[in-house]
Amino acid sequence: MAGTRREAALVKLLDTITAVANTGDDLEEAARTVLSSVCEVTGWPLGHLCVPADVGEDYVSSGIWVGPIGEFPALREVSTTVRFAPGTGTIGRAVVTGQPVWSRDLAADPLVFRAQQGRDLGVRAVFAFPIVAADGVAAVLEFFSTRPADPDEPLLRVMASLGHQLGRIVDRRTVQATVQAGRDRLRQMIDTSVEGFVSTDAAGRITEWNAAAARMFGRSREQVLGRLVHETIVPDRYRRADEAGRARFLVTGESKVLGRRLELAGARSDGGEFPIELVVWATREGGEWAFHAFIHDITDRRRAEQALREAYEAEQATVARLKELDAAKDAFLATVSHELRTPLTSLIGYLEVVADAETGVVEASPPGRRMLDAMIRNAARLQNLVEDLLAITTLSSDRLEIDAAPVPVGEVVEEAVRVVAAAARSGGHVVQTLLDDGGDGGGDGVGDGGGRVAGDRDLLVRAVGALLSNAIKYSATGTPITVRASAAGRQVVIAVTDAGSGIDAEELPHVFERFYRTRYAEENAIQGVGLGLAITKAIAEAHGGTVTAVSAPGEGSTFALTLPLWTPGPDGGPSGEADDRGTAPRRG
Ligand code: ADP
Question: What is the pTM of this model?
């Protein structure tokens, strides 16, 4: 009967303590309940709680006792002053083993540390059990009887189990502390973030508002907490949409804005608006939705973008204006040249007839003849100039298309040499012509007459002629001039080399510009207006080719015209660089 009552009491004890362990999170309070419950069940007068010392591995009295400890001053004194090292005494052993420890009579137990202090503590039997948490023993509970008592095995078993149950209180506290530390860290990050941070509840009431948000919107945290977000930072005209969006999400779970980077306008407390960039996301805690956003003030970025846009537009306008002016100038040049051409042609024609000694319409004295010759020479110069002007205006127009036909490179070179022959002779120059084989033995070389380019024969002769004419103009009398044509891959290179004045490195990049003349040409009053190379370049580009120059002052120059090689297509027409209409690539 007594056994049954005791069993029932133990079960009740277990129930009580399990309930405490499951709900409470205060270890001290739970320990007090356990101490008194156990004293009640056992009929032992004293219970005591020991806890880890603040420093080191020892355990010390928590000062918490149940029962009439005042009647046991020696026990209290010893318990309060002694530090219980792991492994020594009842407390130390409970810590090390994680199991309950029982001593029948501490006065006779050499293992009981406090009894060794040599004082009568007024108690005899003692048992202790540890509260075991995940991180180790969190506390030890001990109980004293005034009489010796044999170990109560059922009680010890219940205590061992209780020790682990109570450990859960400690574990819960540890987890809570970790979570709290995480929260604190997050809060700190949000508080110090340079981005504005705003949270709202499902209804849109502001629940979080960091310092950056306060600066950005000109409202303090206290002013906005609890206010509706769309009435606080959203400009009037977007309020309805903002509210509706939130409502739609709460009903359908769908949203067009969540998780996306949005550029919107924010409203300051003074009603002013500014551009913001933000990302909104939603979380669900305890069945309640909450919305959060990081907000970035992009006023500066917008300003920079605007300035860039304006600069670009201004630039575009300038370019357009320049193009207009250029076109007007070209049109003027073309008209004037055209108007000059006809009378000049007729003038030269008559002059030649007049000057011809055989058909001589006019008998001229030697001085008269010299004058006639000078007139013819100057009229011819004028005619060249007019032709150059006309050529440059036509060639640089975007509408130019070359009527391409396969033209043998050898013929172009020979014709150009023929055109400048008189000038070369009068300068005492020998023009050496080298037509290289392609070197591939396939008959595509230049020297065997198979090397051809798709192009306009007259224009190509003119381009090579201009290079030769420069070589003659800018070289000392009698120096050699070479023109070499060679095939290189799918291209033909026609290079004119002289041993003339050469060109300064800083002037070289400009020689293909219209009307550009080097200092040397100006100072030495060499005839020309600076159009020859511009025309050559325009012709090269109209054929899908290039012209380049290598030069060293005092050592001479090499100007190279590179053109795409013509190869017959499968239908016998031109292919490769030229398109299937037989037209060379248009100039861009
Ligand atoms: P220009 O009518 O002045 O000869 P070009 O367009 O043919 O005009 O040439 C531009 C400038 O490039 C010339 O003024 C000249 O100074 C320089 N130049 C061209 N070819 C040569 C060359 N072979 N040797 C030295 N200078 C040259």
Answer: 0.51
